[in-house]
Amino acid sequence: MKAQRGLTLVEMMVVIAITGIIVTFLGAAIYQMTSVSSYGFAQLTTIHELETIARWLNMDVPSAREAQGGATLTLTMTDNTTVIYTLSGTKMLRLTGGSSLVLGRNITDARFTYNSGTRTVTAQITASYTGRHVVSRDATYQVHLRVDEAAP
């Protein structure tokens, strides 16, 4: 009689066990890659929102003649126009001349103070991204008014 060819039960179980171990490690590696990627995206989104607001503050505040702080920042420019930074829900808005520009989303808190002695505006802003990962960042920016109050 001819000998039968094939796998024994023990050999089959060894192959299944090794395949299971390989699949487990591959699954864990894929999960880790997607998890790190989404967390990095959440961090970058939060940082981008804060940096955009800071860029606009650095453009507007030095050109302002007067400033008033609080939950809203009101800047009176040298040509007597007004620029307002305000939080509407989770959006930071820049209002001027009847138009509105969304500077950042996912903003959970914003406080503005104006020190008339040093002519400095301090903005304390918190951005929180809520997705697969929750990322929250606080940032404080100080910008000086450069124009003399007596300027027209």
Question: How much of the polypeptide forms β-strand, as a percent range?
Answer: 35-45%
Radius of gyration: 28 Å
Shape: rod-shaped
Strand order of the largest sheet: 1-2-3-4-5
Give the class from helix and strand content and strand pairing: alpha+beta
The whole-number mean of residue pLDDT values reads 88
Helical content class: 25-40%
For the termini, the CA-CA separation is 112 Å
The total tally of domains equals: 1
Largest sheet: 5 strands, antiparallel
Could you name the ranges where pLDDT drops below 50 across 5 or more consecutive residues?
none
Order of helices and strands: HEEEEEEEE
Secondary structure: elements and pairs:
Blueprint: H1 9-60, E1 64-68, E2 73-77, E3 82-88, E4 91-96, E5 99-104, E6 107-115, E7 120-130, E8 134-144
Antiparallel strand pairs: 1-2, 2-3, 3-4, 4-5, 6-7, 7-8
Could you please describe the fold and organization of this structure?
The chain has 152 residues and is of the alpha+beta class. Helices cover 34% and strands 39% of the residues. The protein contains one helix and eight strands, in the order αββββββββ. It has one helix at residues 9-60; strands at 64-68, 73-77, 82-88, 91-96, 99-104, 107-115, 120-130, 134-144. It starts with 8 loop residues before the first helix and ends in an 8-residue tail after the last strand.
What descriptors fit this protein?
rod-shaped, single chain, three-stranded antiparallel sheet, alpha+beta, five-stranded antiparallel sheet, 152 residues
Concise summary:
This protein is α+β, with helices and mostly antiparallel strands. It contains one helix and eight strands; from the N terminus they run αββββββββ. The chain is 34% helix and 39% strand.
